[in-house]
């Protein structure tokens, strides 16, 4: 089981350049272009409703401030390198951006949402003069399930996903354990096996520093920095966690061309999983071994929660999953004991379980600041004796039951909510486009 969770960490904690939903689209298009091997004359893309929602209003790295799935797809078509995975846009040259925007303006990139099927689903179909190439990503943002050219199938790992139909959820190995057992396993790990997790602090901290150096995106972190400098609020643990986590999101959502360490398929999850722990380490320095184990706890607890809520959902994963992982790690760093760690998790579930996800965008920095604050506050409250009682709302008798309840509410309970969110955002996007045309 130790080897299993080490491999899980290596597969779920990796660098990502840009919001992973538009990146998934760019990755699929880049792969299809490479397979096509000739000039693309038509580009048609289908995406799940959740990919559509999360890519609509977010900044794209290296695009000079442009937003949306279309520009990401065009950049992937012109210069993306599929071998780079979630960093596919790293290879796009600045000289290609104007051409990418021209493609978008002329309607060359055609993207449509499909409401049924996997929450992570992207199909790119490119037509040339002589051939047609297709690439399909499903279940994870960088997981190709189908690649074909004309009638030649190059890769096919899951036929059920070709049409976007729902696949059976692969159960994470961590859910075979209790939260206590999971943490006990982490405690037995060797530093050499998880030392790579420490890179996440350095990487995500650089993104936070970028957001603190100037007002980017919604400017949430930058504003908190000014408030601290003015003495309006104090530089305490909660505010510092809020500030650096929000600042990193400000920079990332605005399209800064820098990678962050992601967690369970999301860069913003990675920010929330890592930066509150970094803030705690600033105040109370830890050894590399203890810090790496805290990060492992954070990422693995997130994986535990996401097994039930899904990788994408109607609720904000940073609030209901990443904050849960982060608070577990902080409570562990405080040496509060397993029961207290479970209490901190229950506190977050009682606090943030209703936070909706209305797509990746500048305003995510506010949600990440709330998630970071809740993670820190929940652990601190436990330290001083405050734990939400059992059978309190969706908080169950055990922490594992609480997480399952959270997943049921997030998945089955909010499917209609997700459809409504997408409809509202789609309507506003069309109204915005119409207003621009009228002007």
Automatic annotation (TrEMBL):
- Provide the GO biological process annotations: L-cysteine catabolic process to pyruvate
Q: Where is the Serine dehydratase-like alpha subunit domain?
A: 85-422
Citing just one GO molecular function, the answer is: L-cysteine desulfhydrase activity
Superkingdom field? Bacteria
Pfam families attached to this UniProt entry:
SDH_alpha
Which InterPro entries does the annotation name? Ser_deHydtase-like_asu, UPF0597
- Describe the family membership recorded for this protein in Swiss-Prot or TrEMBL: Belongs to the UPF0597 family.
Q: What is this protein called?
A: UPF0597 protein EAL2_c15950
